[in-house]
Amino acid sequence: MAKLYFHYSSMNAGKSTALLQANHNYGERGMATVLFTAKLDDREGVGVIRSRIGIDHQALVFAEGDDLLKMARRERERGPVDCILIDEAQFLTKDQVGQLADLVDSEGIPVLAYGLRTDFLGETFEGSRYLMAWADEIKEIKTICHCGKKATMNARIDATGKMETEGAQIEIGGNERYVSLCRSCYSKGNTGPALS
């Protein structure tokens, strides 16, 4: 039976790596997948899912206002679709999460969504909030803070490594802008060893 899955974590936990591994597993079994990623995350080029360990795959892009149910049905008209994989799922809208749930329920296609739970201020993203509410299965992908505890928070940092406490919710960046912290280090503003 098809399900909607949400795999969440803080930054640098390996979400894209896990997605690409799941895609590989489907391919090894002769099954067809469709990959989606957020249009606004263009760090590696639009429509590319790239893991920090160096593997990548082309993907369709979604933006606010896109109908993912219609997009998936168009892909299904071109050939079989055994699974939909979504990277950067935190950037989904409430409507898009509903469309993915409809896809699972009406088309019987499993959807594996991977994304951040919260932003740099500890607030949930819209997509993550509704995935947490509506997913059939939720799984945390764990990573660690510089202190050795489990990291659950995303801190946005400036060029000196100091934690930022205001700004727009969405600012695309990688290790140069974000670090994963445990709640204790996050609340103290302790982002780890000073940058040189």
Structure, described:
The structure is a single chain. The chain has 196 residues and is α/β, with parallel strands linked by helices. It has one domain (4-142): P-loop containing nucleotide triphosphate hydrolases (Rossmann fold), CATH 3.40.50. It has 5 helices and 10 strands. It has helices at 15-28, 68-78, 94-107, 126-134, 183-188, and strands at residues 4-9, 33-38, 48-50, 56-58, 60-62, 83-86, 111-116, 137-140, 153-156, 178-181. Strand 6, helix 3 and strand 7 form a beta-alpha-beta unit. Helix 3 packs parallel to helix 4. It is elongated and about 55 Å long.
What would the keywords be for this entry?
single chain, 196 residues, alpha/beta, Rossmann fold, six-stranded parallel beta sheet, two-stranded antiparallel ribbon, 5 helices, elongated
Q: TL;DR?
A:
With 196 residues, the chain is of the alpha/beta class. The protein has helices at residues 15-28, 68-78, 94-107, 126-134, 183-188, and strands at 4-9, 33-38, 48-50, 56-58, 60-62, 83-86, 111-116, 137-140, 153-156, 178-181. The chain has a single domain, classed as Rossmann fold, CATH 3.40.50.
